[in-house]
Amino acid sequence: MIPQMVRRAVILAAGKSQRLDSLKLNIPKPLINVAGRPLLVHHLERCAAQGIEEVYINLHYLPEQIRDVVGDGSKWNLRVIYKYEVELMGTSGAVKSFSEYLQDAPFLVIYGDNYCTFAFEELILAHSRRDPRPDMSVVLFELEDVSGSGVAVCNQDGLIQSFIEKPAPGATSSHWVNAGVYLMEPHLLNAIPGGMSDFGRDVIPSFLASGKKILGVNTQGRVYAVDTPELLRNSAGIQSAT
Q1: How far apart are the first and last CA of the chain?
Q2: What is the domain partition of the chain in residue ranges?
Q3: Cα 151 to Cα 237: distance, rounded to the nearest angstrom
Q4: Is residue 150 within 8 Å of 138, Cβ to Cβ?
Q5: For 72-92, how does the pLDDT look when each residue is reduced to its tens digit (9 = 90+)?
Q6: Non-local CB neighbours of 220 within 8 Å, separated by 6+ positions
Q7: What single DSSP character describes residue 193?
Q8: Contact, 175 vs 125, CB < 8 A?
Q9: Which of 237, 229, 188 is nearest to 211 (CA)?
């Protein structure tokens, strides 16, 4: 595989953060403005720059606002397909719901409510240069306080050995955490259970327990979450890396 063969991406955009309710923003979290543009627009721009052609976006909270901003994706030379979730499906459940479109080649999964400063090419190159290719590759970045994140422990070959979502104090010494950007081989779709499920809480630990090979791709880039009013205020000074 060469990087240009990754032509599809799923952007997860359905969630609503109740911790931002006090700000009365009345917009979906992926439309929060960071570094001059909505988070979702940053992701679409990065996808287009990487040669992605089709993007699948799940919707739930205030879906028409996202449709109004993104449209059919032609502004970025992308084809965008939406799926509305009556009930939230979780991160991995949402990806599985797009299975019919994702069967023939590796694809990206991007958490739409984070702002990241690394290039998707880092992940794609790391994944494609492995022989044999891993089943999945996960971007990791270093963080001091890991209590609110999914934490990975990797071996000397970079393969993830264990993954703990929001660990208790002292549960792990690793500070490499999930950046919310994955590259997945399509056969993994069959291993995601039906219904609601979450990558960090359910699916990545299950993949590891069943012997799936998951590569941790350490990046020196950063990921900025906007889950709370404090984090959103901290993001105000971010300069666009796109």
Answers
A1: 25
A2: 3-237
A3: 26
A4: no
A5: 999 999 999 999 999 999 999
A6: 118, 141
A7: P
A8: no
A9: 188
Question: What six digits make up the tokens of 110?
Answer: 């991007």
CA distance 4 to 67: 27
Q: Determine contact, residues 73/48, Cβ cutoff 8 Å.
A: no
Report pLDDT digits (tens) over 29-73. Answer: 899 888 888 999 999 999 999 999 999 999 999 999 999 999 999
If we measure between CA atoms, which residue out of 120, 102, 200 comes closest to residue 160?
200
Identify whether the C-beta of residue 1 lies closer than 8 Å to the C-beta of residue 130.
no
How high is the mean pLDDT of the chain?
Answer: 89
Q: Look up tokens 């609503």; give the residue.
A: 16
Whether the per-residue pLDDT at 242 is higher than 70: the answer is no
Residue-wise over 69-84: b if at least 16 C-beta within 10 A, else e? bbeebeebebebebbe
Q: Which residues contact 11 (CB under 8 A, 6 or more apart)?
A: 30, 40, 43, 44, 47, 55, 56, 57, 110, 112
Fold that domain 3-237 belongs to in CATH: Spore Coat Polysaccharide Biosynthesis Protein SpsA; Chain A (3.90.550)
Both tokens assigned to 62: 């205030």
Q: Measuring CA to CA, which residue among 182, 45, 178 is closest to residue 109? A: 182
Look up tokens 């287009």; give the residue: 48
Nearest to 98 by CA among 205, 2, 186: 186
